[in-house]
Design brief:
SecA_Wing/Scaffold_sf; Pre-protein croslinking domain of SecA; SecA_SF2_C; Rossmann fold; eight-stranded mixed beta sheet; cytoplasm; binds adenosine-5'-diphosphate; nucleotide-binding; protein-exporting ATPase activity; about 800 residues; alpha/beta; seven-stranded parallel beta sheet; 29 helices
Length: about 800
């Protein structure tokens, strides 16, 4: 834990700068609109003359602040200015709900936007990105900067490459993390400068930084392409699993949600499939298939993780809300393994064309900052992953909300009853209530209970962001009862209706302890905005998910002993502090398990990340470079040498075959007199034929530019083909390494070693493909009279 005094010192510094900005306020207020707007031009001039953004901060913030007042009718409070400075400096900024993060962001976005290199606001919620982008956009445009939203407006059909270029080329861009991630991947698949639309990532503010940068970071973004050849092992691997016994041939760790084969499991595998050593490098397909099948059987539960629909297809469920995730597929063959287990229809296993984790996506920004209601508890992880500090900004008004201690019960029915009684009590006096559940199922149970009590209420489960934002905005009215899942209506402010303050404000009731302390804090933060009164309280039972999964053993023992003595109609609260402490510890354990999971995925992606950097660098050099500056003769020579060394007993037939497949169609010799055992002779012979073929090609180009284009396309195509294989292989590799940890090896080390080896193989493969495409492609004139390349 950071010492609070350190945060205090940081805040004090922000305060000092804010005072300077305050001093300029009257002066800015006295300017005409025209004079105020003219600052943008002046700032840009000063930047051009060599001044730094830092040196403009005080004035620029004063200018936006005044513009915010004139355009939006809101003048940023001092704490918002402080938050804005911290964001400009590239920190994660913790500001409580209702403190006005949207308006806060206008100041750092304007200042960074002045550079013209791009400033982005990224949020997980499309609805909010669009709303904030259009509302705040007015301020930037008024001041003479361009601002765009990074995806199609609601109702608009298309978002073309041109639109994207305008969006990413704007001074300021509002977008979602998903749109940004997929655009990044697509942009790097472009084979032509005309199809590229992104520039280097400069500055970003990530809204709900903990959700985007930490929680969703384990699920990589994936673009899938052409189907892979179906593994022939799928069916047998599935049958194999039925012959195994848990704890003997494989182990299952419920807490870590992991399964793996034991050494004895690998022995059985060797015998079952009649292979000597599954780890000798020749049986990766087998290892992959058996691991996927084992996971399908033990880690994925029907009707919890997936359903089999009436068309006999496996559909994934979102475990947070139980809804079917349309079109989502598990990667790298896992989906097919589950389909096999269920004897459902087997869907094509698609190749991973491109993939990246959010962590690595956001690390590409030169300067990254974030806003969150609850980031401080995760500061260490932010620093480790993004090198960002977390600064807590004080609230505009003192927080008057009271966070009441947890209410603990032995059984779930008792807890339900007790929390319902509390709702009835509060409802009677007219206080608005926000009942927050961990998932859709529970929210439906509460809705049913409320219905039985004839209490009118709204239920939100993150289905329609726009509609839910409107409903939740009403949740602060007198007598309102709102049941919502943790995600529903997030980011929308709950203002209190008339007369509610006097009653004690909004009451937030958490119906269980959530998987992370941060989520608890977010829920609490929904009450008590801007110094409003309010309360929060969590109802917990020993049957709650976190308690079962991460709680101390004695809690379970206690539960088993007592549960039968409990009467749901008369809930008995457990008031001993020991229980509350144990439950807090269970939540900490849950947080720490998630952290480990995230770290693992980050480490796994490290190899792909390094390779991705190299490949993208190479691609861009080719795309944007004047001339293809590859040493083609050297590549040819390397490829021919590889051919020679991989054919130790080279025959005339092999050589002829190779030439016809890889070098030229125009070859009619049989080099019977050639010294086939001599490397230099063979390589030189091939070089001569290749050069003749190249000379033939050169004759068909009208000019040097055309020739260069040809080289570029050939090399790009080869790179892309190899890279797709590589990234697909890496994705699969991750599923295999898990099984190796039992063979007393470090899985991560194995993974990186394997990844490096496959990268080196890819390099050879690349030379081979370049050679083949370069020499064997034909150039023709099509009907429209354009030159066209036909690849082999
Ligand atoms: P957060 O995202 O921090 O929870 P929002 O950005 O949704 O908060 O803002 C909360 C509410 O406060 C909004 O209705 C906004 O219009 C209002 N608000 C923010 N800053 C100011 C301000 N300086 N003056 C007046 N109203 C403000």
């Amino acid at each position: 834990m950071k010492k609070p005094s350190l945060n205090r010192a940081r805040v004090k510094k922000l305060r000092r700068i804010t005072n300077q900005i305050n001093k300029l306020a009257p002066q800015m207020a006295a300017l005409s609109d025209g004079q105020l707007k003219d600052y943008t031009r002046k700032f840009r001039q000063r930047l051009q003359d060599g001044e730094s953004l830092d040196s403009l901060l005080v004035e620029a913030f004063a200018v936006v602040r005044e513009a915010d007042r004139r355009v939006l009718g809101m003048f940023p409070y001092d704490v918002q200015v402080m938050g804005g400075i911290a964001l400009y400096q590239g920190n994660i900024v913790e500001m409580k709900t209702g403190e006005g993060k949207t308006l806060t962001a206008t100041m750092p976005l304007y200042l960074n936007g002045l550079s013209g290199d791009g400033a982005m606001l990224v949020t997980p919620n499309e609805y909010l990105a669009y709303r904030d982008g259009t509302e705040m956009g007015q301020v930037y445009e008024w001041l003479g900067l361009t601002c765009r939203v990074g995806f199609a407006a609601p109702g608009a059909k298309e978002f073309t490459t041109k639109d994207k270029r305008a969006a990413y080329g704007a001074d300021i861009t509002y977008t979602t993390n998903a749109a940004l991630g997929f655009d990044y991947l697509f942009d790097n698949l472009a084979t032509n400068v005309k199809n590229k639309f992104m520039r280097d990532f400069n500055y970003a503010i990530v809204d709900e930084a903990d959700a985007v940068l930490l929680d969703s970071a384990v699920m990589p973004l994936v673009i899938s392409g052409s189907p892979r050849v179906q593994s022939t092992w799928l069916g047998v691997a599935d049958e194999f699993i039925y012959t195994l016994k848990q704890d003997e041939e494989y182990k299952y760790d419920k807490e870590d949600h992991a399964v793996w084969f034991t050494d004895s499991g690998h022995d059985v595998m060797s015998r079952y499939f009649a292979v000597k050593d599954p780890f000798n490098g020749h049986h990766t397909e087998l290892l992959r298939a058996t691991n996927l099948a084992l996971k399908a059987h033990r880690l994925f539960e029907r009707d919890k993780d997936y359903v089999v629909d009436q068309d006999n297809q496996v559909e994934l469920l979102d475990t947070a809300n139980g809804r079917v995730m349309e079109g989502m597929k598990l990667q790298a063959g896992q989906h097919q393994a589950i389909e096999m287990k269920e004897q459902a229809e087997i869907s094509p296993d698609t190749r991973t064309l491109a993939s990246i984790t959010y962590q690595n996506l956001f690390r590409k920004f030169k300067k990254l900052s974030g806003m969150t209601g609850t980031g401080k508890v995760a500061e260490k992880e932010f620093i480790e992953t993004y090198y960002d500090r977390v600064i807590q900004i004080p609230t505009n008004r003192p927080v008057a909300r009271v966070d009441l201690p947890d209410k603990v019960y032995t059984t779930l029915p008792e807890k339900l009853m007790a929390s319902l009684q509390e709702v009835l009590r509060l409802h009677k006096i007219g206080r608005p209530i926000l009942l927050v559940t961990a998932n859709v199922e529970v929210s439906e149970i509460y809705s049913e209970l409320l219905l039985q009590q004839k209490i009118p209420h709204s239920v939100l489960n993150a289905k329609n962001a726009a509609k839910e934002a409107a409903i939740i905005a009403e949740a602060g009215q007198k007598g309102a009862v709102t049941v919502a899942t943790t995600m529903a209506g997030r980011g929308t402010d709950i203002k209190l209706g008339p007369g509610v303050k006097e009653l004690g404000g909004l009451a937030v009731i958490g119906t269980e302890k959530m998987a992370s302390k941060r989520i608890d804090q977010q829920l609490q933060g929904r009450a008590g905005r801007q110094g409003d009164p309010g309360t929060s309280q969590f109802y917990v039972s020993l049957e709650d998910h976190v308690v079962i999964k991460h709680g101390a053993r004695w809690l379970q023992k206690y539960y088993k002993k007592r549960r039968r003595q409990m009467d749901p109609a008369h809930p008995k609260e457990i008031t001993t502090a020991k229980f509350r402490r144990a439950i807090a510890q269970a939540q900490e354990a849950s947080d720490s398990a998630d952290r480990q999971q995230r770290r693992k995925s980050l480490e796994m992606d490290e190899s792909a990340q390094i390779q991705r950097q190299l490949i993208i660098g190479e691609r861009n050099r080719l795309l944007y470079g004047e001339k293809v500056d590859l040493d083609l003769p050297a590549i040819l020579r390397a490829e021919f040498t590889r051919f020679f060394t991989t054919h130790p007993q080279l025959t005339v037939d092999q050589l002829v075959r190779y030439i016809l497949d890889n070098v030229t169609y125009q070859y009619f010799d049989r080099p019977t007199t050639l010294a086939l055992a001599d490397q230099a002779t063979v390589v030189n012979y091939l070089m001569k034929i290749a050069q003749a073929e190249l000379a033939r090609k050169q004759a068909s180009f009208a000019n040097a530019e055309e020739e260069n284009d040809f080289y570029r396309i050939v090399v790009l195509k080869a790179i892309d083909e190899c890279w797709v294989e590589e990234i697909d292989g890496l994705t699969q590799l991750q599923t295999i390494v898990a099984s190796r940890s039992t063979a007393q090896r470090n899985p991560l080390y194995e993974y990186h070693k394997e990844a490096l080896r496959s990268y080196n193989t890819m390099r050879h493969d690349l030379y081979h493909r370049i050679t083949r495409h370069l020499l064997m492609s034909t150039i023709d004139i099509n009907k429209k009279g354009e030159k066209q390349i036909y690849f082999v």
